[in-house]
Amino acid sequence: MIRKRIIPCLDVKDGRVVKGVSFLNLRDAGDPVELATQYDQSGADEVVFLDISASQEGRGTMIEVVRQAAGQLRIPFTVGGGIRDPEDMFQLLRAGADKVSVNTAAILDPSLIAAGARRFGNQCIVVAIDARWEEDEDDWFVYTHGGRKKTGLRVVDWAQEAVSLGAGEILLTSMDQDGQKNGFDIPLTQAVTSAVRVPVIASGGAGTEEDFVEVFQETPVEAALAASIFHYREISLEDLKATLREEGVHVR
Amino acid sequence: MIAIIDYGVGNLYSVSQALQRMGYEYTITADEETIRAADGVILPGVGTFGDAMLELKRRDLVDVIRDIALCEGKPLLGICLGMQLLFTSSDEHGYHQGLHLLSGHVKRFSGDFNIPHIGWNDLRFHSPHPLLKSVEEGAVYFVHSYHVFPDNPDDILAVTDYYGDVTAIVGRNQIYGMQFHPEKSGDTGQRLLENFARLCCKTEVPIG
């Protein structure tokens, strides 16, 4: 049966990893390809590169990062950030990305999901959703622009629409939990996994190995993503996999 | 020399780099003469079945591929969608005819479970084969919504389990297919790709 995936995420700006990285063994701590290769060798099941470059030059640099990553990595990787049209998707897939992730652009123009799925197949199209709980409305709402702008979209509704348009996977980030390091957002993850029939990746809030155990035991989520705890070596992938195995979670 | 067929869809670069890491010569090409001169051919594939067949036809590659596989008997490996294209037909976005090098039909997964099938899943071998030599029944990376139902069960070299048996590796004569991405599947994938490369380049002396 299919195995649960652990996915480190790297924020990349102008071709460099931006979150402070304290890897000891890297020649160049800012090199996304070298960091991702280290994750590959440590047992990561997949890697996400999130391009947060603001400029066209930065985006061009990302293509080169993708090309190098495709040459080095023996695991699949997804690229997100700044993808606006199917041509952007094509450039990244052609350079060697396995999947592309869309967020704000897909909300502004949902037909982007359908166009991408039609041309490249649903399995290539990841829709990333940034979710925040609204106490007044008693529901989760979708945020765009890196979590800065609130939309009127309810998370479960948008997840279902994205899937009906052709999303092959949902990358679900809890803005409430992101950076808190006290666990994934279990209710949010449950709400979305029970509403769609595509793989969901839980993101935001991982602080300990137990947080990963919890999200896999409490929800049917297929993958869990984290960034800084891996970069700062607060959790090693090897130890995390061993713990998950001990707890009966089926991992590679 | 292994020719990786470039027909505008497909993630060619990762496959080429995997071959390069293992020390095999490759060329990425859509040129008939180059393809015919190669020791073996890889047909990659990302995209949709109908579009991929259109692109192969537009580049006059259908007959070339069929000729190499059926008449010349050179090793041919279809990866992911490339494997599906080896078969008779597919239901993806309407009915489409494939290369029909192997007999069978491609259908969408159906049932109350997550589709696409994305992630690492274990191989289970059906019978010994040079392609599987020294390979463990380890996990490899799948990412697909459609899968192949070969008419001839003997064509199935390996399956995986995703709410039932899913065809993972096929082989008949020198025609091979892998539904997963060997170039993205760690050690297990690398060994499988290397075995194919060895079948192509019989003169290659294994290192060590």
From TrEMBL, chain A:
Gene Ontology annotations of biological process type: L-histidine biosynthetic process
Keywords associated with the record: Amino-acid biosynthesis, Cytoplasm, Histidine biosynthesis, Lyase
EC number: 4.3.2.10
Pfam family, one: His_biosynth
Subcellular location: Cytoplasm
SUPFAM superfamilies in the cross-refs: Ribulose-phoshate binding barrel
Keyword Cytoplasm carried by entry: yes
Domain of life: Bacteria
UniProt signal peptide: none
Pathway membership: Amino-acid biosynthesis; L-histidine biosynthesis; L-histidine from 5-phospho-alpha-D-ribose 1-diphosphate: step 5/9
Primary location: cytoplasm
Molecular function (Gene Ontology), one example: lyase activity
Active site: D11, D130
Record's catalysed reaction(s): 5-[(5-phospho-1-deoxy-D-ribulos-1-ylimino)methylamino]-1-(5-phospho-beta-D-ribosyl)imidazole-4-carboxamide + L-glutamine = D-erythro-1-(imidazol-4-yl)glycerol 3-phosphate + 5-amino-1-(5-phospho-beta-D-ribosyl)imidazole-4-carboxamide + L-glutamate + H(+)
Record-stated family: Belongs to the HisA/HisF family.
Annotated PANTHER family: IMIDAZOLE GLYCEROL PHOSPHATE SYNTHASE HISHF, IMIDAZOLE GLYCEROL PHOSPHATE SYNTHASE SUBUNIT HISF/H IGP SYNTHASE SUBUNIT HISF/H
Free-text function comment from the UniProt entry: IGPS catalyzes the conversion of PRFAR and glutamine to IGP, AICAR and glutamate. The HisF subunit catalyzes the cyclization activity that produces IGP and AICAR from PRFAR using the ammonia provided by the HisH subunit.
Assembly and interaction partners: Heterodimer of HisH and HisF.
Protein known as: Imidazole glycerol phosphate synthase subunit HisF
Origin species: Marininema mesophilum
Lineage of the organism: Bacteria, Bacillati, Bacillota, Bacilli, Bacillales
From TrEMBL, chain B:
One example of a Gene Ontology biological process annotation: L-histidine biosynthetic process
Domain Glutamine amidotransferase: 4-197
Purpose of the protein: IGPS catalyzes the conversion of PRFAR and glutamine to IGP, AICAR and glutamate. The HisH subunit catalyzes the hydrolysis of glutamine to glutamate and ammonia as part of the synthesis of IGP and AICAR. The resulting ammonia molecule is channeled to the active site of HisF.
Chief localization: cytoplasm
One matching Pfam family: GATase
Alphabetic keyword roster: Amino-acid biosynthesis, Cytoplasm, Glutamine amidotransferase, Histidine biosynthesis, Hydrolase, Lyase, Transferase
Pathway: Amino-acid biosynthesis; L-histidine biosynthesis; L-histidine from 5-phospho-alpha-D-ribose 1-diphosphate: step 5/9
SUPFAM superfamilies: Class I glutamine amidotransferase-like
Subunit composition and interactions: Heterodimer of HisH and HisF.
Lineage top rank: taxon: Bacteria
Active site (record annotation): C80, H181, E183
CDD domains assigned: GATase1_IGP_Synthase (cd01748)
HAMAP family: HisH
Molecular function GO terms recorded: glutaminase activity; imidazoleglycerol-phosphate synthase activity; lyase activity
GO cellular component, one term: cytoplasm
Reactions this protein catalyses: 5-[(5-phospho-1-deoxy-D-ribulos-1-ylimino)methylamino]-1-(5-phospho-beta-D-ribosyl)imidazole-4-carboxamide + L-glutamine = D-erythro-1-(imidazol-4-yl)glycerol 3-phosphate + 5-amino-1-(5-phospho-beta-D-ribosyl)imidazole-4-carboxamide + L-glutamate + H(+); L-glutamine + H2O = L-glutamate + NH4(+)
Name recorded for this polypeptide: Imidazole glycerol phosphate synthase subunit HisH
EC number: 4.3.2.10, 3.5.1.2
Organism: Marininema mesophilum
Compartment(s) of residence: Cytoplasm
